[in-house]
Every structure is written in structure tokens, then in C-alpha cells.
Design goal:
The protein is built from 14 helices and 40 strands. The protein is an alpha+beta fold. The strands form 9 sheets. Strands 3, 4, 6, 7, 11, 17, 19, 20 and 21 form a 9-stranded mixed beta sheet that branches. Strands 25, 26, 27, 28, 29, 30 and 31 form a 7-stranded mixed beta sheet that branches. The radius of gyration is 34 Å and the shape is globular.
Length: about 750
């Protein structure tokens, strides 16, 4: 071959080789770019803890994310409850295990209920072997401390009061696969009704209906302005955080274990739980220990325990005291005798109000209708009555109260039997209608309003204001219906209405509890009650004044004084005759927590005074001082616990999630929220979390030794990771093929050069 031809061939080969090298370089760069992009995408997905539903093999509650087909594993919760009952006092410790089953850092917020008369005073956060004590702070200061810790990556917990019976616990910076344990403690008194003592532990916050109403504003007219006025800014709303509610088709979450140590102080008779099966072990005549028969129970209905004395009648009095600093605190519980002869009952004007909104669907509606029919059957010919029903609309059955004779009663019975649950809970119009009293000066009749509802409303303040401003001669008796009634509203509405509160949780309780209620309706036993404390004592006692009492109800007084000595004298009218009793204050048995109960009752009284007067600023200073001085959570104070050591690495994102709750047992999801049922395929996928969730509850942590974190099962490899790995392997294989081809071309080029 001529040299010119050889050089031309070699030059052509060099040009082709340069082009091939450029193409290979381009392919390698593109491949590296794609690999890095996928790696960054995977890192972002991992940092957010996103998973696909089909790839989750262990227990997880999945929440929707902004990326289609991917979900965020929600923080999970397991709760352990320990309650020690001594006489009329109860001390409870609630241990909440916040569990992060995902790979990202999360903040969990849980909305939970506590008894409406609970004095919440202790917060502990357990991290590994360390226990961090919470501090009581003014609400805004506590929120600022928590938010700063959250931003800094430090673990923190914040307990805030939304209502006196609704609280939130926010826990920041829960690491991947980590459990943080938070303990809350509170003090309360048990309830006595005749010879029955009871204790309730609420387990779920029922969804609250928010009425569609405008926020009222006041007009301020100033002297000398020529009659012109200006609008004052509206009052800040009392917000209530509503947790997301899990559809029942998706299983049950938030398992609870519960144990109670009961020392009644007298020989025990029956000990029963109406809504849960219990395992009971007696310890002598007056003590018992009990747990839930089902060790871990989903939090979807309230727990109630009722115990009675073995004797024919319960003890009539209890007196306890506690010395805190330079002050003595007193708690008095006294059940007046009913008397052998009760005055002849006056005829009554009874207004029966029934809630038929969507939240009452299912067993609640059945219980409410049975209760109302039972009440109609107990009216006498001398009584008059009317029936009001409400959802987002309202109907008053008769233009005014009518005689309780056969025809009117038949009309009412047919009307009640035809009611069904639907719509929203607009309670205020029905309350206003029930308090309209065209015969306000008629003292020959007792005017009584019986409200049957679950109390699932948001605007309690408006309702309390209506009661205090327009009660007149009426008395309000609330009947809480269902597995998770709003006991705060029901109890406070009855207190403001100078009546009583009754709870009916299932159909078998209708006859017994309505019978007790109607016995009270006929016989207000004690009136005009006054407490006289020892002369010269600077005494603050609550409630003040002492309300009227009905058959079987005790007088409960909390007081503070420099020294508990001398005699307390209680006077009143019992069955129309004078009644008096004297109690030596120095005979009281010492018990811890009496001071906190006094402070809680004082705060309740100040809140009630503010509602009545419509002046919150007047009482807020005293409320804040009392709450801070006694280390209590209130409307104006919160508990906050913060770890000093940052845990979340810089630059790693934090995802905030509201923790879902169960729908209360007996509620109909579609009637409340109007949503459609969960599809079968999605329901089956989500149900995988239920059984492992129940297994995640651990033993409660203690102040002495912190419980170790829960060992959580590992999730499977993310499907996206497998896809990315396959693409990477494919690109590496292509690169190897290209390099092999280049090697062959280089060998051919070397051979050509040797031929030159």
C-alpha cells in the first residue's frame, strides 16, 4: 500500500477515534449526571421518610405526601395509664410513647382528653436513661422555648390546654426509628352520686362541630364625640385544634393499657366497668387492683369505673388537708341525709331537648331516643312539657309547653321515634329556645330543661354566656350520650344552669340513670347552703356561693387558710327544714395534692366569673398567678421540657404531623364527615399496621429508671431504590461495553501504526 494511502487511512482512524472518545466522554458525563440526580432524589425521599404503600411490611400508619404514590409514615402512639385512688382522691400518671417508624425526623402533635376536673401539674420527657422535668411557664413563653428548641434540633415536649378537658402534646425532633417517652401526671376527685362512686378516664377527643357564625364586634361610644362610635377589635377566638380522624375501615390505632389501684377507705361492694371488660383482684375488704381484660385497647371510648360500699349506705363525710408553705389547704366532701319525709313535689314544666345531629348517629341516637321516651313516660298529668330537636336546623314541637296528657304525649312519642341523626350541631338556637320562659313569674311550677346530647360542639363560650345571662328560673340538666361525650361542656353547663350532669354510655344504662335523674328533678333536697369558716381566718373557699344540691349529691368544698383549726359550720334548708352540721378542721387526714385541687377549683371559679361578667382581662392576672404558683396547666400556662443537646443534624429537614385519632365507638364516619367508604384495596393495605401497632406499647417509664426505646421492625427496601439500583447497573454495563469497544479500536490503531 502506498505511504500516502497509509497516512490517509491512519488520519481517518485518528479522526474517528477522537469522535468516539468525545461520544464516550459525553455518555459518561450524562450517566454520572443521571446517577447523581437519582442519588439526590433518593436522598430527598429518604430524608422525608417517603415510602410506597406496597413496600411497607411492618406496622405503619401512612399519610399522604405531595409526591404521588408515596406516603409519610405517621408518628405512632402507645399510652399507659396508672391511677391510684385513695378515698375520694385520684392521682394519675399517663405515659405516652411517641414512635417514629420512618427514616426521617418528625414532630408529632397529639390531641388528647383528660377529666374536666383534673389538675395537670407534672411533665417528664424520657430520653434513653435521662429524665427531663418539665417547667410551668406562661403560655406564650413556653411556646417560644419549644419552637426555639425545635428549630435548633433539640428534643422537646410542650403540653398545652385547649379546653379544661382537652390538651395537646407536641414532641419535636423524634429521630428515625426512635421512641420518645413523655409522662403527664394530674390530680382529681372522684365523683359521688348517692352510694355510688365513679371515676372516668376519657380516651378520645370526639370531633367538634364548628358553627357557621360571624365573630361579633362591639361599638365603643366615647363622651364628647357627637354620638359617633368606633368598632372595637373582635375578641380573639378560643381555638381548639381538631385532630385528623382515622376512618374505621383503616383499623384501630393508639393502643392504651390501664391499671387502677383502688383504696376506697371503706368495705367494697361491687366494682364494675360499664364500657370495658376488666380483670379485678381484691386485696382485703377495702382495696382492689384492676386492669383492662384486653391488655391493649384502642383509644376509641371513655373508661368508667363505678364502685359501691358493701354496707347499705356510703360514708357521709370526708375531710383532708395539706400544708404547703405557710398555708393549709382543706378538702371537704359531705353528703347530707336525704331525710325521712320529703316535701310534696311541685308540678313541673319540662323542656326536653334532643340532639339529632350527625355525631349522634348509631348507638348514641338510640340511647337518646330511649332516654327521651323514658322521660315522657314519667311525666304526671299535673306537668307540662315541650320537645325541641336540633341539628343544623331546629324544631319546637308545640308552640308552647302543653299538658302531659295522653294525646299530647302520643304526638311527642311518634315524633321522637321518627327522628334520625344527620347534619351539623347548631346547639345555640336550641338552647335559646329552651330558655324562653313566657311564665317567668310562675313559682307554682319547677321549670327544668333536660338536654340530651354528646356535646360535640366548638363554641362552648357562647353557650355558657347564654346560660348565665338568660337562665332565669330555669334549671338545666345535661345528659351526656355516647362513648366519648364532651364532659367539660356537659358538667359546666349543668353547673352554670344550677342542675346536674348524667352520663349514659350504653342502652342498658338508660332506665337506671334516667330514673336517678328524674328522682333529682322531683326533689331538690338542699337549698340556701352557706359555709361559715372559723372567725378571724382569712379563708378562700370554692365554689362560692355553694350551689343547691339534689338527692344523693355531696357538698365538695376546697379552702385555703393560714392554719386548719377551729370548726367549719354548714347551714341550709333540708327538705324545707333548717339543717346544720359542724366539722372540726384539725381532724382532717393529711394527703398530698389538696393544694393543687384547691387551685384548680379557684381557676374554674375565676373562669366562670369571667364568662358571666364578660370581662376576661379582669380575672386573667389572678388565673395566671394561681396557675404559676401551683405549677398547673391552664388556659394561660403550659408545661415545657427541653433537652440541652441537639439531636437532629444541621440541614436535615423536620416533618411536622398531627397524629390521627380513632373515631369514637358507635359513631358513623359518613354521617359526621360526609366522606365515602375507603376502597377495599386501600383498606386491606392500611390494615397491616393494626396488629403490629398494638404490639408496640411498652411498659411505662418511671422517674427512677427510664424505659428503653421500643425495638421497631425494619421496613423493606424502597421500591425506588431497587429501580435506581437497576438503572445504575445498566449504565455501568453500557460504560463497560463502550470501554471494551474502545480497547479494540485502540488495538487496531496500534496495529495500523506498526504497518506504517
Amino acid at each position: 500500500m502506498p505511504n500516502t494511502t497509509r497516512y490517509a487511512a491512519y488520519a481517518g482512524f485518528r479522526q474517528r477515534r477522537s469522535e468516539i472518545l468525545a461520544r464516550i466522554f459525553f455518555i459518561v458525563c450524562v450517566s454520572l449526571f443521571v446517577i447523581v440526580s437519582f442519588a439526590q432524589h433518593q436522598a430527598r425521599a429518604d430524608s422525608a421518610g417517603l415510602v410506597r404503600m406496597a413496600d411497607v411490611e411492618s406496622g405503619a400508619l401512612l399519610l399522604n405526601s405531595t409526591e404521588p404514590g408515596k406516603y409519610v409514615p405517621a408518628p405512632l402512639l402507645a399510652t399507659d395509664v396508672q391511677i391510684d385512688v385513695t378515698g375520694p382522691l385520684a392521682r394519675a400518671r399517663v405515659t405516652q410513647h411517641f414512635i417514629n417508624p420512618g427514616d426521617g425526623w418528625v414532630e408529632g402533635k397529639y390531641v388528647f382528653p383528660l377529666p374536666e376536673n383534673s389538675a395537670v401539674d407534672t411533665l417528664k420527657m424520657v430520653i434513653g436513661t435521662r429524665v427531663i422535668e418539665g417547667q410551668i411557664k406562661e403560655k406564650q413563653e413556653a411556646r417560644q422555648i419549644y419552637e426555639e428548641a425545635r428549630a435548633d434540633g433539640r428534643r422537646a415536649s410542650l403540653v398545652e390546654q385547649q379546653r379544661p378537658n382537652v390538651f395537646t402534646n407536641s414532641v419535636a425532633n423524634i429521630g428515625p426509628r426512635e421512641t420518645i417517652v413523655v409522662q403527664i401526671e394530674y390530680q382529681q376527685t372522684v365523683r359521688q352520686d348517692g352510694d355510688a362512686f365513679s371515676l372516668r378516664f376519657p380516651m378520645v377527643v370526639a370531633p367538634r362541630y364548628v358553627p357557621m357564625s360571624a365573630t361579633p364586634q362591639l361599638v365603643d361610644f366615647k363622651p364628647g364625640e357627637g354620638g359617633w362610635g368606633e368598632l372595637l377589635p373582635p375578641e380573639a377566638p378560643l381555638d381548639l385544634e381538631q385532630p385528623p380522624v382515622l376512618h374505621p375501615d383503616m383499623g384501630k390505632i393508639n393502643p392504651v393499657s390501664l391499671a387502677i389501684s383502688l383504696d376506697a377507705g371503706f368495705a367494697l361492694g361491687t366494682v364494675e366497668s360499664a364500657h370495658h371488660e376488666i380483670s379485678l383482684t381484691r386485696d382485703g375488704a377495702r382495696k382492689a387492683k384492676l386492669t383492662l381484660a384486653e391488655e391493649l385497647t384502642p383509644a376509641n371510648k371513655d373508661f368508667e369505673l363505678v364502685w359501691k360500699p358493701a354496707a347499705a349506705s356510703a360514708p357521709a363525710a370526708a375531710l383532708f388537708r395539706e400544708r404547703v408553705g405557710d398555708e393549709d389547704y382543706i378538702l371537704v366532701m359531705l353528703t347530707p341525709p336525704a331525710g325521712q319525709t320529703l316535701p310534696k313535689a311541685k308540678p313541673r314544666e319540662i323542656i326536653l331537648v334532643i340532639d339529632n345531629s350527625g355525631s349522634m348517629s348509631g348507638p348514641s341516637m338510640v340511647q337518646a331516643k330511649q332516654s327521651l321516651l323514658w322521660a315522657l313516660d314519667r311525666l304526671t298529668p299535673d306537668d307540662t312539657f315541650n320537645v325541641i330537636r336540633f341539628d343544623h336546623t331546629m324544631t319546637v314541637l308545640f308552640p308552647q309547653a302543653v299538658a302531659a296528657h295522653g294525646e299530647n304525649l302520643d304526638v311527642a312519642r311518634r315524633y321522637v321515634r321518627g327522628l334520625s341523626a344527620q347534619g351539623g350541631t347548631e346547639m345555640l338556637p336550641a338552647l335559646k329556645a329552651s330558655l324562653i320562659d313566657p311564665n317567668a313569674n310562675d313559682n307554682s311550677r319547677l321549670r327544668q330543661v333536660v338536654f340530651l346530647t354528646d356535646g360535640a360542639i366548638y363554641n362552648e363560650r357562647e353557650l355558657f354566656t347564654e346560660i348565665t345571662n338568660n337562665l332565669g328560673r330555669s334549671r338545666i340538666f345535661t345528659v351526656g350520650i355516647g362513648s366519648a361525650p364532651n364532659s367539660y361542656f356537659m358538667a359546666r353547663a349543668a353547673e352554670a344552669g344550677r342542675g346536674t350532669y348524667t352520663h349514659i354510655g350504653k342502652e342498658t344504662q338508660v332506665a337506671e340513670r334516667m330514673s336517678v335523674l328524674f328522682d333529682k328533678l322531683q326533689h331538690p333536697v338542699m337549698t340556701d347552703i352557706a359555709a361559715s369558716w372559723p372567725d378571724g381566718r382569712n379563708t378562700q373557699s370554692w365554689p362560692n356561693p355553694v350551689p343547691d344540691l339534689y338527692k344523693g349529691e355531696p357538698i365538695v368544698l376546697s379552702a385555703r387558710m393560714p392554719k386548719a383549726e377551729g370548726t367549719l359550720t354548714l347551714k341550709g334548708q333540708l327538705a324545707g327544714a333548717p339543717w346544720e352540721i359542724r366539722l372540726p378542721l384539725d381532724a382532717g387526714e393529711t394527703r398530698p395534692g389538696i393544694g393543687k385541687l384547691w387551685a384548680r377549683r379557684k381557676i374554674e371559679q375565676l373562669e366562670a366569673d369571667a364568662r358571666i361578667e364578660g370581662d376576661w382581662q379582669k380575672h386573667d392576672g389572678d388565673i395566671l398567678k394561681t396557675a404559676l404558683g401551683h405549677h398547673l396547666v391552664s388556659r394561660l400556662t403550659s408545661l415545657v421540657a427541653v433537652d440541652v443537646t441537639p439531636a437532629r443534624p444541621d440541614g436535615v429537614p423536620l416533618t411536622s404531623r398531627d397524629m390521627p385519632v380513632n373515631l369514637p365507638e358507635g359513631w358513623d364516619y359518613e354521617k359526621v364527615f360526609g366522606g365515602e367508604a375507603v376502597p377495599a384495596a386501600q383498606r386491606a393495605a392500611f390494615r397491616t399496621h393494626a396488629a403490629p401497632m398494638l404490639a408496640m406499647a411498652a411498659m411505662p417509664a418511671s422517674a427512677d429508671a427510664a424505659a428503653p426505646g421500643l425495638a421497631l421492625p425494619q421496613t423493606s427496601t424502597d421500591a425506588d431504590a431497587l429501580i435506581h439500583g437497576g438503572l445504575l447497573a445498566f449504565m455501568l454495563a453500557a460504560l463497560l461495553v463502550a470501554l471494551r469497544w474502545l480497547q479494540r479500536q485502540w488495538t487496531l490503531g496500534a496495529y495500523a501504526r506498526r504497518r506504517l
